[in-house]
Amino acid sequence: MGTILAALANQFQALLARARDGDTDAIGWLALGVAALVWLMTRAAQALATLLSPAKPAEGLELAYPPLYTEGFPVVGNVAAFARNPLQLAKRAYAQLGDVFTLRVGPKRFTFLVGPRAHEVFFRANDDELDQGPVYGFSVPVFGRGVVYDAPLAIRLEQFRFVSTALRAARLREYVPLMVAEAETYFKRHWHGTDGTADLLKSLSELIILTASRCLMGREVREQLFEEVSTLYHQLDQGMQPLSVFAPHFPCKAHWQRDRARREMRRLFASIIANRRKRYQEIAAQAESVGQDPQQALEAAKEVDVLQVFMDSQYRDGSRLTDDQITGLLIAVLFAGQHTSTITGTWTGLLMLRKPELVTRVRAEQEQVLYDDDGCFKIDYDALLRLDVMHRCIKEALRMYPPLIFLMREVVIPRTYRDYVIPKGDIVVVSPPLAMSLPEVFADPDRYDPDRYAPPREEDKRVPFSHIGFGGGRHACMGEQFAYLQIKTIWSVILRDYDLEPVGPLPLPDYSAMVVGPKPPCLVRWRRRTP
């Protein structure tokens, strides 16, 4: 304890010195700390009384609130434990209290639902019963006003419909050749020569932003503006810090850069959209002038990407998305998939490469599915859907190391589970890494075993909401199939062209990040295969 206090004192002194030197970020952190201390002191008495009081019947109902879990000192104990490692805190609470419990962290009540049966309360609820908006409001400065979590529920659901349209099978079929081209180009450029060593996490992060920019943001961004947009995306990403969750508009360098990047992204996409519309008008006019069907010519000329889908989308009242809303939705879709696909693709490789017999089976499947009778290698949408062994490898990596440790909603209408009622205002939480490591759901859960999903075992199908790596029910991830196609494409190209072996021990998860991936570096040794 003394060591911790000494370290905190040293950090405070360093922060104070930076503030005296005029460092605006340090001044801001000190101001936030003082404000937080004052707030904590004013709430301490009320929180202490709540923590020490027993669960009481809810108003109008003969049901109790879920049991409270507390460790350490009252008021601050859960806060400290949550800050150190929220997942481990949830695991300890589950071990003691079972599949439903509440953690009070500061003024907030987080009620956890653990296991397939409890998950039904979360995943079967409507959005007007459990609402995402208040929980993810910190994303508004990045996504923009009137977009996703800042939009009224009815508008938000329509925007989700636009995203769903952009990720339907017919669209995905068109995206696959773009993914293949990006993967082949990337590895020829960066993994050149006969052999070498690469950081798999870094390589996949770079490649996935390339494929995402081409499929989502369009040809213009990929071919002409990629470096600029990539820099702006990085600034937006860095502007979503743990501090941002509690104070999204706090005056600090990361937030200032985030806001500037958001304005610049809007300007860039407004220009791209205007240029596309002008070009389409010229094409339609040219077709009409020579007696052709202008609408047919226009449809043939349209770009194949998510940006175009959003440009063509209409709300139910006939209005179209504004340029700012289009920009915000593109950013939201990119944020939803960039880190998660990178992390899951990396874990898939790190785990699969440690089982050589599994790599042999994946390659055998590739030879059967991706090569035609003339020995030509071809990746297309239908072929990727038939890569069952690889699909299970990805799914198992996602089960063991899901990038999102908590999925959250705010209770709008009280929910009941077993003999408890979860009151309005609680944040209800489902934890994929906790739930998908339960031995009663997945046998020997700490073992990487992709065959658990193959017949006759099919452990994920015995009970609904067992595997929740992509959510489930009403809250299933719309980008699930896009992510699988992207990761399958990348690993099909890698295993076709390279032999790989892992370097060093399996990395540990980095729970200090908002989206949890392996701690870098994630080194692999590669050797180019001879045709």
From TrEMBL:
Keyword Nucleotide-binding attributed:
no
Q: Name one GO biological process term.
A: sterol biosynthetic process
Q: Which domain of life is it from?
A: Eukaryota
Write out the entry's keywords from A to Z. Answer: Heme, Iron, Metal-binding, Monooxygenase, Oxidoreductase
InterPro entries documented for this protein: CYP450_sterol_14alpha_dmase (IPR050529), Cyt_P450 (IPR001128), Cyt_P450_CS (IPR017972), Cyt_P450_E_grp-IV (IPR002403), Cyt_P450_sf (IPR036396)
List the PROSITE patterns: CYTOCHROME_P450
User: Which Pfam families does the record associate with it?
Assistant: p450 (PF00067)
* Annotated binding of heme, by residue: C477
Q: In Gene Ontology terms, what is one molecular function of this protein?
A: iron ion binding
Q: Which cofactor does it need?
A: heme
Membership in a protein family: Belongs to the cytochrome P450 family.
Listed name of the protein: Cytochrome P450, family 51
